[in-house]
Specification:
heterodimer, A: alpha/beta, Rossmann fold, Ubiquitin-like (UB roll), de novo design (two linked rop proteins), 3 domains, 5-stranded mixed sheet, 18 helices, 14% strand, B: Alpha-Beta Plaits, 2 helices, elongated, binds flavin mononucleotide, binds iron/sulfur cluster, 4Fe-4S (chain A), iron-sulfur (chain A), metal-binding (chain A), Nuop51_4Fe4S-bd (chain A)
Chain lengths: 429, 76
Amino acid sequence: MSAGPRLTATGAAYADLAAHVRCHGPLPATDAAHIIDIVERSGLTGRGGAAFPTGRKLRTVAGNARRSGAVLIANGCEGEPASAKDRSMLTKAPHLILDGITLGARAVGADHAYLCVHEGQDDLLRMLQRAQAERRTAGLPDVELTVTEVPNRYVASEESSLVHLLNGGPALPLSTPPRPFERGVRGRPTLVDNVETLAQLALAVRHGADWFRSAGTPDAPGTVLVTLGGAVAAPGVYEVELGVAGADLLAVAGGPSEPLQAVLAGGYFGAWLRADRFAAAPITSRGLQAAGAAMGAGIFLALPATSCGLAETARIAQYLAEQSANQCGPCLNGLPALADALTVLAHRGGRKPAGTITALSPYVTGRGACRHPDGAVRLINSALTEFAADVRTHAQRGPCQGLRRAPILPVPTPERTATRTGGRVPAEV
Amino acid sequence: MPRRQRDRTLRVDPIKCEGHALCIEAFPEMITRDPWNYPVLNPHPVPDHLLRHAEHAVTVCPVLALRIVTSDRERK
Ligand SMILES: Cc1cc2nc3c(=O)[nH]c(=O)nc-3n(C[C@H](O)[C@H](O)[C@H](O)COP(=O)(O)O)c2cc1C
Ligand code: SF4
Ligand code: SF4
């Protein structure tokens, strides 16, 4: 990219405080009004999935918190199984995130912040302790910060789940309203932001809105961290300018490693795009939405031409069904029914399953307390439209050659999740 | 002077709702059944002449999952 990397500018495997300050400059001594103003003008949007304008969220929480004070949650859970960018940022540039936490807390009037990460990452916890110790030694005016471990489940990192957990409950979504920005941790207005969003904020506040907008496009300014995976030559985490074309995005990871049929844009909260449509789509939230997909948390997975897109999606759908918090009827009943129908279509074929999916989908979308089912339904339906020719083949002639190939999309603990049905194709849908 | 109009809309808490479907029997005009016996609410404001039915549906829900939310809007 022309402007060069920003978030990853130090190039270090672990940028200690001295290296961080040498590269980015010291923590700005800016006040709340100024921070909110810069972030609003920068056009920064959330990098956790929904691409919500960060400045507007800051202003709302600050307004709601005028009397009570606020709380900040930095979401570093990275619940998307294929994503690696948050852990990469936390490991390489923790001080940029910690700067963002302090500046974000200052903006909304929070005297306490939580950095949430998935449990079982002892190396990451030790590294964060080291970074915090460096800051204490340097006497930085940081907000009080608690690093909190969160259960390793997909919906545990949804924002109301984090609030629930920090209020002493289980990490399960809460009914809204109230949304966290209205009433969250200890009843206070709570700012929940992805850790990359906070790191971007730390740079915007340092260098100003015009600098921030000098990368990206007018309606999608800045850079973004992406995780490129599947059939690309060099899978990994990369920082790119928003607005590049899909084809150029894949080129960043060395391009396709074999002929592609489609790309899953936005991770398991996103949608499939056929390879030609993806190549032409601009990598921005708006551009991907117009194509029927999503930016999500910046995950792009390339599917080889010889894979079965239906079988790949069925595995993910089973995983997502298994990850339902089982609190809401339409989610706990609907996701398994949809996943089973897609599994039957992929592994056995027939005309019925696609009809079942089309009939049930409207009863699932928008009917849970959180948006988990909405994402799963979008992904499943994108498989039916983007792999329409395969749907016809499976309906008429049964499963295709693609099933011979091992699945390439990552699903955690396959012994449990790919097999909610015990590894068998469900008999009936 | 625009007149104020009070809208009353049905809302269900999907976590509390246990799919007893009692509300569906009580107010079929605006609550229908999904494939798993959970209620699908008509998203439009409840017309005045059906308000008593809506209030009845709210009272039959054993887990207090169904509510009527009120909002004001300007009427031209
Ligand atoms: C099921 C589910 C899981 C989520 N998991 C994450 C996550 O792991 N990390 C994250 O940053 N946001 C996650 N989100 C989005 C958060 O709810 C929230 O919108 C986000 O952290 C806000 O940060 P941002 O405005 O900086 O994007 C999830 C949302 C849903 C519905
Ligand atoms: S919609 Fe699904 S995942 Fe979300 S709270 Fe309800 S049951 Fe849980
Ligand atoms: S009566 Fe209450 S619990 Fe039963 S379906 Fe209606 S809202 Fe849900």
